[in-house]
Amino acid sequence: MQAVLGIISLLCFCWIISENKKQIQYVPVIKALALQLILAVLIFKVPFVSYLILKMAMVIDALKHSTLEGTKFVFGYLGGGESPFHINPDATASTFIFALQALPIVIVVSALSMLLFYWRILPFMVKIISVALRRVLNIGGALGTAAAAKVFLGNVETALLVRPYLKDFSRSEIFTLMVCGTASTAMAVMPIYGDILTGTIDFPMQHLIAATLLNIPAAIAISQIMIPNTQPATEAGVTVPYQFSGPMDAISRGTSDGLSIFLNVIAMLIVALALVSLCNMILGSITLADGSALTLEKILGFLLAPLAWLMGIPWAESQTAAQLLGIKTVLNEIIAFSNLKSQASLLSPSTITIMVYALCGFANFYAGRLKYNGAGTEAKRYFPKF
After folding, report:
1. DSSP for 288-305, written as a single string
2. Half-sphere exposure of 299 (CA within 13 A, CB side)
3. In terms of domains, do 202 and 66 share one?
4. Exposed, middle or buried, 168 (CB in 10 Å: 0-12/13-18/19+)?
5. Which residues touch 140 (CB under 8 Å, ≥6 apart)?
6. What's the pLDDT at 349?
7. φ, ψ for residue 167 (rounded to 5)?
């Protein structure tokens, strides 16, 4: 009942802040929530679907191990290769280097995505899912294509798939595109999350894939309540935004794009962690009643504890969970997942599972600027303060 109360409360909050309550189409919203429930039952209760999710997780895991072979050759023991010196097994410091052992898979997955674009495999898969979304949720073909693409791609690639149709998007469709982008993640970064969560939860990749699948219909439902669509839906098919001369050209383009993401993630993590540390130094001059210093995490934990409770988390653990939600929102999900791993001993298994799903998405102040190539101009036309 606690989780049901949370769903009702969040939907009511979205209804309260809706900019046009009279135009809300409740049938598609109910269908989207029903689709999310059906997907959850299929993923967790139907053996065949669970097996498919497991196979997808195994493919991503294989990509992770294949990438490690490349990092070993390029970076040696810093990239996961055999160390040339003896390492004390009792040492508290870890030899795992996040930037050189976890992040490079972003480049490999990006290159593979472009190759699948060239072979027309990825556009075909997106088209099948988009048709289903359009018929079930009564959304336009262009928006359905973008929503379906978010299961596989990042925000930039998703917008490029429907770039020719963005000029015809309504304010509601642009907003739904933004919400789908921030509510989900991308296959390129899932292995990074999986690496962080190893040992924290069983089969982390399966949960991350399931979270992405479940978040898309929820994002559509929420966005259609907040900004209902009052114009005809934009119909379109899948476009191929890239022109490749051959498979090696596709791999080269994907590698370059992946390298850009790789460097941006490194820079973002350095700056974000530095700002948090600086903020905590300033707040540390304030002493709380229990004698501990005030921190940004404690402030966020106090503010978001009711939201964590509405998600189904016991009140005794809500402060810790709320801190993770705050870190994910203010900073990013990679730092939040890292903190979840370090604080796993303070949380029950059910709370850890809930937090994996809650943290799996690009919804933070950095992603909130909507740096879509092509979608940015359209977003600013409808949201001038953005």
Report:
1. -TTSPBP-HHHHHHHHHH
2. 13
3. yes
4. middle
5. 134, 173, 233, 234, 235, 236
6. 93
7. -65, -20
The three-state secondary structure class of 287 is strand
| Contact of 238 with 130, CB cutoff 8 Å | yes
Q: Which amino acid is at 250?
A: A
C-alpha to C-alpha distance for 297 and 276, rounded to whole angstroms: 9
Strand, coil or helix: 184:
coil
| Residues 265, 143 within the same domain | no
In this structure, the answer to whether residues 211 and 335 fall within a common structural domain is no
Query: How far apart (Å, rounded) are the C-alpha atoms in residues 47 and 43?
Result: 8
Are 157 and 181 within 8 A, CB to CB? no
d(Cα 217, Cα 6) in Å, to the nearest integer? 17
Tokens encoding 336: 């939040």
Contact yes or no for 26/225 (Cβ under 8 A): no
275 and 213, same domain (yes or no): no
| Structure tokens belonging to residue 377 | 């101009």
Number of Cβ within a 10 Å radius of residue 252: 15
What does the pLDDT look like over 313-322, one tens digit per residue? 999 999 999 9
Low-confidence ranges of the chain (pLDDT < 70): 89-94, 236-241, 366-386
Q: Quick one: 105 and 226 in the same domain? A: yes
Q: Are 363 and 183 in contact (CB under 8 A)?
A: yes
- Can you say how many angstroms the Cα of residue 32 is from the centroid of all Cα atoms in its chain? 19
Alpha carbons 373 and 375: distance in angstroms, whole number: 6
Packing angle between helix 296-310 and helix 2-16, nearest 10 degrees? 100
Instruction: Give the number of other Cβ atoms within 10 Å of residue 37's Cβ.
Output: 12
Query: 236: left (phi > 0), else alpha (psi -120 to 50), else beta?
Result: beta
155 and 286 share one domain:
no
Name, in order, each residue with C-beta under 8 angstroms of 103's C-beta and a sequence gap of 6 or more: 192, 262, 265, 266
**List of residues 6+ apart from 278 with CB closer than 8 A:** none
Structure-derived torsion over alpha carbons of residues 353, 354, 355, 359, reported in degrees to the nearest 10: 110
The strand ranges marked E within 80-170 are: none
Say how many C-beta atoms besides its own lie within 10 A of residue 125's C-beta: 16
Range of the domain at 286: 254-359
* Predicted local confidence at residue 367, as pLDDT: 57
Report the pLDDT value the prediction gives residue 373, as an integer from 0 to 100. Answer: 46
Give φ, ψ of 356 to 5 degrees.
-60, -45
